[in-house]
Amino acid sequence: MGVAGFDEEFDVVVVGSGAAGAAAALGAHQAGASVLVVEKCDEATAGGNTRVSGGGWWVNRDPERAQVFLRSLNGAFPVADDVVEAWAAETAENSRWLEDLGADVAMSADYHTEPEYLELEGSDCYAGMDTIAGRMGHSLLHDFLHGALAERGIEIRFETPAVELITDGGTVVGVEVEAADGRRRIGGRGGVVLATGGFQADPGMVRDYLRVEDHVLWGSPASTGDGHRMAQAAGADLWHMDNMMTITGVRGDDGSGYYLALWNAHNYLWVAADGRRFMDEAADPYHGHVRRNGGYELFPQRPFHLIFDEQMRTAGPLSPTPDVLPVGWNLLVNGARWSLDNADEIAKGWIERADSIAELAEIVGVDPSTLGRTVEQYNEACAAGRDDHFGRAPEKLAPVAQAPFYVLEVTPLLGWSNGGPRRDGRARVLDTRGAAIDGLYAAGEISSTYSWRKDGGFHVGDALAFGRVAGRDAAARA
Question: Which N-terminal residues, if any, form the signal peptide (predicted)?
Answer without folding.
Answer: none
